[in-house]
């Protein structure tokens, strides 16, 4: 994945259409851009850490990478194809994301997982839960995988909801993985176990990781530092070794 001079500005209040958004953003002052002139590539098959102070543009960059936001200027290329030109299904196969705030359906545990891979078998679902350190949860629920987890997942703790999102990722198996504070609600031991699982089961995939804990990104192949929406530094691991 390559960011080619990507700019993005949030729409002004009341702005509803893409043409309006483009007009607003083109006229905006430089400091009004959420991200400006992003130009960098993720390490193919490796890990890129995205760091910077709060408000530097890290989460906006992640949302651009997964296609939630569309660049106002520039483009994001995936295997030579503009991300904006991919169908929603193709985009979901290409890029997967886990964030600190997890969306949970008012549905069964099984349905919350197979939304990432509708054809998945119960065996594959259970395996994904095991990789996400959630296999024991099934035994505590009254109907197992068929238990409704409730509106916004009220039956689950914050850490369990986050691990549910990671299980979706394991089940979907996208080529590019984006983790935005994906283990923020987890204790240190669970976080370490999940990182081991990710290293083992997401090996060979291209990863973009946003995290405040140094331990989460210390082994990254490259580190991209943002400041006020701009890339100010790129450090390569090999240069430091």
UniProtKB/TrEMBL annotation:
GO cellular component, one term: plasma membrane
Keywords tagged on the record: ATP-binding, Cell membrane, Membrane, Nucleotide-binding, Transmembrane, Transmembrane helix, Transport
Membrane topology: Multi-pass membrane protein
Protein name: ABC-type multidrug transport system fused ATPase/permease subunit
Domain ABC transporter, residue spans: 16-240
Pfam families associated with the record: ABC_tran
Signal peptide boundaries: none
GO molecular function, one term: ABC-type oligopeptide transporter activity
Localization per record: Cell membrane
Primary localisation category: membrane
